[in-house]
Amino acid sequence: MAEEQRVTIPRVKLGSQGLEVSKLGFGCTGLSGIYKPPPPEEVSISIIKYAFNKGITFFDTSDAYGPHTNEILIGKALKHLPREKIQLATKFGFVTSSDFKGTAINGSPEYVRASCDASLKRLCVDYIDLYYQHRVDTSIPIEETMGELKKLVKEGKIKYIGLSEASPDTIKRAHAVHPISAVQMEWSLWSRDIEEEIIPLCRDLGIAVVPYCPIGRGFFGGRGVVESLPADDKLKANDSRNLNIISNPIHALVAYLTQNALVTCGLLAVVLEITSKVHG
């Protein structure tokens, strides 16, 4: 029997403050039923353990996923893994109503601290490696939010600070209060807006960019992937939605090729690199 080929996942530094993670991360959202009914808890935990055993050490969650249930799940999974070898990212900012039908955004210092303490408890950990503001609260000066996050760093509750979906001005102002290690933004073959300002700014400031939805919310997984989904699956709905938003000829070509299974995700990565240089 042929020996199983082991893939080594390289390490990469996020930002300039020392955070090092596996280059391939694991977004835990889908384990809590965001896109489809969640798998049984024991299956979800086994998936996380499997990912770690394959070399993934960077796990991303949020108090908004579930809400709260995703963090609880990750906390249970971490009991089976060496905490010192895990880089754990979670987020705060979304406030869900008691009936789970509405959300607001809160970046007040009091909410920042309360959210961090609650996440630490749900995750069953003493510290969070990377703590993101999930969305920016435009009613609160970013300097106030960052001031409280800076205190949490000094107290050892969090190690590094991140922002998600922040504007260039907000990133610069936040970074002036305390170094930002990572900015999480949607970035894929057809979500390219951040390449004009955000990417150059983060490069200049030494901030890492962590892409979410890098394969177009499942669309670039290929035609076979989409056809195998149930009719009510949210990823299938995204497939139809994304077909209607293609405006760039390069994006349209790539969409056609992937939908007809004529290219692989590996080739897409090459296309992304080439087109980034062309447009950069």
Identify the notable features of this structure and list them briefly.
single chain; 7-stranded parallel sheet; 10 helices
Which helices and strands occur, and which strands form pairs?
Blueprint: E1 11-14, E2 19-22, E3 25-27, H1 41-53, E4 58-60, H2 69-78, E5 87-92, E6 94-96, E7 103-105, H3 109-123, E8 128-133, H4 142-155, E9 158-164, H5 168-177, E10 182-186, H6 198-205, E11 208-212, H7 223-227, H8 234-243, H9 249-259, H10 265-279
Parallel strand pairs: 3-4, 4-5, 5-8, 8-9, 9-10, 10-11
Antiparallel strand pairs: 1-2, 6-7
Helix pairs in contact: 1-2, 3-4, 4-5, 5-6
Protein name: NADP-dependent oxidoreductase domain-containing protein
Pfam family, one: Aldo_ket_red
GO molecular function: oxidoreductase activity
Task: Tell me what the structure shows.
With 280 residues, this protein is an alpha/beta fold. It folds into 2 domains: 11-214, Alpha-Beta Barrel (TIM Barrel); 218-280, no CATH class. The chain has 10 helices and 11 strands. The chain has helices at 41-53, 69-78, 109-123, 142-155, 168-177, 198-205, 223-227, 234-243, 249-259, 265-279; strands spanning 11-14, 19-22, 25-27, 58-60, 87-92, 94-96, 103-105, 128-133, 158-164, 182-186, 208-212. The protein has a 7-stranded parallel β-sheet, with helices on one face. Strands 1-2 form a two-stranded antiparallel sheet. Strands 6-7 form a two-stranded antiparallel ribbon. α1 crosses α2 (69-78), α4 crosses α5 and α5 packs parallel to α6 (198-205). The longest helix is centred in the middle third of the chain and has 15 residues, at 109-123. It is globular, with a radius of gyration of 19 Å. The model is unreliable at 239-247 (pLDDT under 50). Keywords: NADP, Oxidoreductase. It comes from Populus trichocarpa. Residues 23-234 form the NADP-dependent oxidoreductase domain.
